[in-house]
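REVIEWER CHECKLIST
Item 1: Sequence provided? yes
Item 2: Single chain? yes
Item 3: Sequence as submitted:
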Amino acid sequence: MDAGMNDLVRPSYYGSYHHILPVNEEKREEIVADVVGPICESSDFLAKGRRIPRLEPGELIAVMSAGAYGFSMSTNYNSRPRVAEVLVRDDQIFVIRQREDYEDLVRGEKIPDFLIQP
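Item 4: Structure as written out by the authors:
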């Protein structure tokens, strides 16, 4: 999946459990699977040996109970921008923090003028 341990490190740090559900609810077969991220580290997982509904490639999933605490522990490890923060209240959705982009990652990395050759 696109999300990785940099987005939600709690499962790999101390085994926290987060329900993982497809966004589109429909009756489907359940499978036992590992839910892993793209970082290629042995700790890059959100669930191991978990019974989950069978998902299709490209399908959106919800990782429940991640919350602000999960976001506060997120990092830019492996040069990955942090995800947007979204607030859901009843049937309304609010983006309260935009997803980072490349410019956000390099904002503080200025080469001093004296190192730049004329």
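Item 5: Key structural point noted by reviewer: The radius of gyration is 18 Å.
Item 6: Recommendation: ____
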